[in-house]
Amino acid sequence: MNTKRQQHTPAAPTAADYLIASRQCELMNLQYFLQMGKVVQSISNLVHGLQRERGASNLYLGSGGQKYADERGAMVGESDRLVSEFEQALAEVHEALTAHPVSSHLLNHIASALHGLEQLPALRARVDAQALSVAEATEAYSSLIHAFITVVFEAADTAVDPSIAGLLVAMVHLMNGKEFCGQERAVGSAGFSSGAFDSALSKRMMHLVEAQERCFEVFVSFADEDSRKLWHSLRAHDREAEIERLRQHGCSVGRYKTLDPELADRWFALMSERMDELKKVEDAVEGSFHTRCVERFAEARNSLAHQETLIATLDRQEPPAQPMLVLCDSGEDARAGESWDSAGVGQQFGRSIFDLVQEQTRRLQQMTDELQSAKEALEDRKTQEKAVLLLMDHRKISNDEAHRVLRKLAMDQGKKLTEVARALVSMADVLK
Amino acid sequence: MNTKRQQHTPAAPTAADYLIASRQCELMNLQYFLQMGKVVQSISNLVHGLQRERGASNLYLGSGGQKYADERGAMVGESDRLVSEFEQALAEVHEALTAHPVSSHLLNHIASALHGLEQLPALRARVDAQALSVAEATEAYSSLIHAFITVVFEAADTAVDPSIAGLLVAMVHLMNGKEFCGQERAVGSAGFSSGAFDSALSKRMMHLVEAQERCFEVFVSFADEDSRKLWHSLRAHDREAEIERLRQHGCSVGRYKTLDPELADRWFALMSERMDELKKVEDAVEGSFHTRCVERFAEARNSLAHQETLIATLDRQEPPAQPMLVLCDSGEDARAGESWDSAGVGQQFGRSIFDLVQEQTRRLQQMTDELQSAKEALEDRKTQEKAVLLLMDHRKISNDEAHRVLRKLAMDQGKKLTEVARALVSMADVLK
Predict the structure, then answer these.
(1) Which of A25, A266, B284, B370 could share a disulfide with B101, CB 3.0–4.6 Å?
(2) Where would I find the NIT domain in this sequence (chains A, B) (predicted)?
């Protein structure tokens, strides 16, 4: 038996023990993602609720408290329900998150989101009292929403299974795109209701449109087939063309002539519809994500059980004269081990455990390779945010202006935005 | 009090809870590294013991079993002692490694190393019986040693603290360099004792010399001051010059004239001395690594205690009229929170927790940034190994030949080896 060795205590863990531990680690990671999936879904719903609350609050404030009080009240009530669901989902995973902590970054971002949530009653009170402007209210809600989306980005970064990571990357970029859409809705509302789009407002709108497109590009490249189809039918809808016409109208005509204030209502309705449709695509991705988690978890659990049985069988057998056939998981080939002379007790067993270890090495390596593109997508976003912060700091410009500078750099140099951002960040270290 | 919110169960985790959980996650990670440090040290010692055993076994085999039997026996006994120490260290960390698994890759590589260890008695029996060649014995020992060094590489990849990661990267590259040195010792012995260095042997030696230098370069760039000094005095020693003279002599003269067989003994003695001196530098790095782990752990534990006290104090106080001064860890500034109106209950508390969360975000971001270079060094090695495997597979050439092709590519294109390797790997995906 290959678990006994002379001169060593029998309690020493064996290769087989660690092989199983490696598989168990994968299983535990998948279980963690099944649970995190509920938190992510609750965040998706809560973000949508807060976006609706933001919109209604802005209309309420914009009308000087004269209109939309009931609608706003309904949104606030709905958001509270969604906050409870989020807190419930978080409480269920709290033990797993903190006892076997995966990422201090993730925990800190959750702290950040919870802190924002703790400020929500005070924010609502200020809206009630009309004690802040539409811009200030938008900023406060956007900040809270951003904190929640950041939690999902961080969760995506902790994924080790490539298919799961990919779907999370798709979903969070869609969420982020929808948020930029919500901010665009607010900017458009401000422009149309005031009757004019000044230079700053136009630039902001342009930035938000471009930011959405970049998010949606990443979504498309990582999404599953069904969600992509849903997305394409959204894009093919007449609504998109009408929104584009309104954008053009606002930014071009809106500089010279006072705009028809009724366009404000039309704009708000269209953009709200768009966001609701985007939410449906988000739900589709979340559904695929959940299905994939369940599939992978079942696969991993079966693999583990199969391996444990196989290893137990190996332990019980007498050393055979011939090398044994190793029956592995269907689809996973047992590769031939190193070639040893056929003499030597324990070498056939050695080859079998060896094959299993080699197979695991190959599997994990392949998974890591496949994970690369998802990791890069997340890294690109972080690099871009860093580059933007550098530009803001260095040139004392706004977030939108910094994004514009970055985009221009990319266009002028004929390079991709992420390349330019990466170069900027690395140059900053050198020029510090 | 900011932990109470209307309509929500008081049991819901708060921002403060997650802030503390984030710090606890850091602490648990550092504790895990303190324990892993013992495993890493035992691996360092075991690898050195196996290298000595390999050397003695080769001399024994090379002399047809006529000489070095006693020396080999002593090495085998010493290695067994070191195996016990390794198993002991591993048993102590087994619980932590498997209950809160950090990396399925790491666990699988440990399985691989343990499997190799289980084959060691059989290998020794074959050496006893002189049932394998010097080359075969070298290959078998090298394979086992490689498995252990891979465990340390994988452990380095799980580090999140940049200073700890850096020292682990330094140490494992030194270990790897010492292993290439051991393989060079074997190649040189073969050449000098046979009296000639044919083309294949010369190429192999050249490859091993170059591979060592690359490892030592990375070591130097990540090592601490004291270890670097020790390293420089090793390089300044006369031994280095004599080894270089022997290399030149063997590879040039050794093609045309039969070499003096006594050079074989001189070569072996010099290279063994060199490896012992390298081990001392390795021990110095390990010492610095341990010291750093202890320091960071103490820092993190104090930070956590401080934060818990601070947060408890915040919870107990009445809302003050003025914003509170936040006393944070010395050296970590509390940054001003977003600007809110001074009206609004709970906002001052909000700002304090907000400050702590912001500070943690900044700290973690900075740590991740500083971690980049260590991560890149580990990634570079993996990319190079991938590129080598690709070339071996594509052109049906040996490991050494593939390395040579890669080096030539780098020279011809005037680029760094890692750049060329990265380009090759990405092209392979495209051309598949």
Answers:
(1) A25
(2) 41-296
Q: Given CB atoms, is A125 within the 8 Å cutoff of chain B?
A: yes
Cα B430 to Cα B426: distance, rounded to the nearest angstrom? 7
Please state the domain extents for chain A. 16-299, 342-431
Check: CB of residue B113 under 8 Å from CB of residue B147.
Answer: yes
Percentage of chain A with pLDDT > 70? 88
For domain B342-431, give the fold.
Arc Repressor Mutant, subunit A (1.10.10)
pTM metric for this prediction: 0.86
Q: Which of B24, B129, B79 is nearest to A102 (CA)?
A: B24
Which tokens sit at A104?
A: 């201090």
Q: Best mutation site among B29, B86, B119, B120 for testing chain A: the one with the most A CBs within 10 Å?
A: B119
**Local structure of A329: helix, strand or coil:** coil
Token pair, residue A292, equals 């994939």
- Determine, for residues B107 and A345 on separate chains, whether the beta-carbon distance falls below 8 Å: no
Chain A, chain B: beta-carbon pairs less than 8 Å apart = 194
What six digits make up the tokens of A54? 């933001």
**Share above pLDDT 90 across residues of chain A, in percent, rounded to a whole number:** 64
Give the C-alpha separation, A267 to A260, whole Å: 11
Q: What is the pLDDT of residues B306-357, one digit of tens each?
A: 988 888 887 766 454 444 433 333 333 333 333 333 333 344 555 588 888 9
CB A19 within 8 A of CB B108: yes
Question: DSSP per residue over A54-100, as a string?
Answer: HHHHHHHHHTTTSS-HHHHHHHHHHHHHHHHHHHHHHHHHHHHHHHS
SS3 A261: coil
